[in-house]
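Tutorial, part two.
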Amino acid sequence: MNKRLGLITLLLLLFQWYARYAAAPVVDFTLDDWSLLRRAENMVSYADAGRMMLQEPDRPVGALALAVFFRAFGDAPAGYNFLGYVANSLCLLALIGIGWELTRNLYVVLLAGLLFSTFPILQESFNWPTMICYGPGF
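Running the prediction step on this input gives:
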């Protein structure tokens, strides 16, 4: 691997961590997360999570994933933050690899990585609780 590409990859992973958690290191649950958490607490096994959440009318697959996470982590945000960072990091690494293979241009890879790394902080699920905790001018 190109040494500069490796350095850019490391810097982008660090930037992603900073961009994601600098404004609000602990993000609270939003919208229907609390009701799904209460339902998950009553499940005795992961199979119960599958049976119950796949009957969720609005988003069965998302509710199933949340139920599994709720059973694993409860209401402690550290596990969710870690999983979110790992998932976004894997996508970032894929983006870097694809960008490098297509363009062989470090500037393109860097710009794409910077844009992608700031993406999570623009999402409602991340931004909404941050605004409630810190106000619009944080």
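The helical segments are 3-21, 33-41, 46-53, 60-73, 77-103, 106-118, 124-134. In part three we will examine how such features are distributed along the chain.
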